[in-house]
Structure formats: structure tokens, C-alpha cells
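Aim 2 progress. For ADP-L-glycero-D-manno-heptose-6-epimerase, the working sequence is reproduced below.
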Amino acid sequence: MIVVTGAAGFIASCLVTRLNAANFNDIVVVDNFAVERKLANLAGKHLREYVDRNEFFEWLDANHEEVEFIFHLGARTDTTEQDRAVLDLLNLNYSKQMWQACVQYQLPLVYASSAATYGSGTLGYSDHDDALLPLYRPLNPYGDSKNDFDNWAVNQVEKPFFWAGLKFFNVYGPNEYHKGRMASVIMHAFEQINKTGSMSLFRSHNPDYTDGGQMRDFVYVKDVVEVCYFLMHHRQNSGIYNLGTGEARSFLDLALNTFAALDRVADIRFIDTPEDIRDKYQYFTQADMSKLRGIGYDRPFTRLEDGINDYVRNYLVPGTYY
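Predicted C-alpha cells for this construct:
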């Protein structure tokens, strides 16, 4: 059996699809299944069992001998969440309990970290030096919760025989319909264009960047799950890894390609970045991908143009799931 937590969510449900495609069908999905808007992400998938996240560790105690691998992708992912108690419960303490269970039962573990741990990026975006982890200053409590766990994990004496923490950069793609404000800019662009015929981007308040020239490392979710699949088979070289493309692209590139995928004439307008997030706004992120490449992951990452075209034409327009 393969366990996937957060399984009804965006990235995890796409991972289940990838596992099914490789004939892994004994998948135990773990989540808060009371959130009904996410359940469509699992429709039609081959699954062995649904387990509520609050009952998972009791389930694992009874079934650990049958478990082959754990993907712990469940978390409170709202970057605007200010309740640190919620983040400590779901992102830090639950992950610690997962780690300790994987140590106890010697189960390999891949867990979701985040590029939000890098904060403003003043210390760069390299995943090579764990000594930098205590020095990062994330820009929100969500980033703090992810960095707190990364720090805790690398300092543990007892570790799973294989483990990897994945610092997801700006992931986009199918199955994010339920995410609301936290959905990718591409999904918001699609909705804006269909509703108004135009798209709004934040104006630059940094003289080093033109309006729309702010840059992110946008990574297609299909690439993310390929990395997860690779690590499930690799099971060596434990550690924390970036998961982006290694190539930053501008929001203007993103907007123009969304219009192109819709066969629409681009109409892009600029609005001021809200003052409440302006001092925490990142103008550039780009993953250093040499560490993952160095352990043998050699698949090319999807170009932004191709990813947007696939996402918009094959999922957003027809309203289908991956």
C-alpha cells in the first residue's frame, strides 16, 4: 500500500493519478473528507481506502506492515493564515508525528515543504546547505511552519531510512478548482479573462522591475508528481530538495500565454499591489535545481508556454480533472 495524505487536495490528487497510471492501485488516501468541494479530485481513481486524518496514526499502527511508502502532502496551505495554533497543529506537530511513525516502522517518507521558507530570498534559493535553514526568515506564518519542520527534521538523530522534503515553488495545474484565493495565477487569469475579457496584474513598486516583470519559478503539477514518483523508486540521498524548474518567468509571460491558450487578444491592466502585502511581496524566485539533478533526476521540466496551453485547453476550458 502507498499512503498519500492531503489526497483530495491539488498536488496529492494529481500524484494519485500518476500512481494509478503506473498500476499502483492499493492507495490509502488520507484527508479531512468533510471538505466536500475537494472530493471531485478523487472521483474515478483506483483507491484502496479512505482514512480520516484524525484517525490515521491509529490506522497506521494496525496496518504498517502493509505500507510501502508514505507521501505526506497534507497541510494547511493558506499563505494568509494568521492562526499559528492551526499551523502548528497541522503543519508542524502532525508532520512530527508522521516522521516519528516512519522512524518507528521504518517507512520511507516524502513530505511537502515550500519555497515560502526562503522568505524574501536574500539568502538565495539553494537547497544545498542545511546550515542556512535557521537563518531563513519566511514572510508569513505558513512559511514559518514549513521552515520550522525542515529545521526540526534535519536535526533529528533518528530518521526514516529514506526521507525527502520537497520545497515546492509556484505550482499550477489541474485539480486546483477548490483552492479559491490560493489557486494559481493562471486559474485566476482564466476566470478573469472569461468574465471580463481582460486580466489585472500587480503594478511593480520596485524600480528594478517593470509592471508585470515580477518573476516566479512556475512549475507544472505534472512535473511535480514525476519527481515524487522518481523519489519513490530512488530511496537514497535523503534530504531537502527544491522543486521548481530552475527558470524564473514573468507574470506578463504567464498572462500573455493564458490569453494565447484561449485564442483571445491580450488585454492586460495593472493595479497597485495592496498595501497590506506590499512590504512582503516577492519580486523574484528561482529554484536552484542542481541538487535534484545531481541524484539522477534527468527529465526536462515543462516550459511555461506548454504547461499553460495544456492546463487551459485540456482542463480549465472543459472543466475536467487530472
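The longest strand covers residues 109-114. This observation will guide construct design in the next reporting period.
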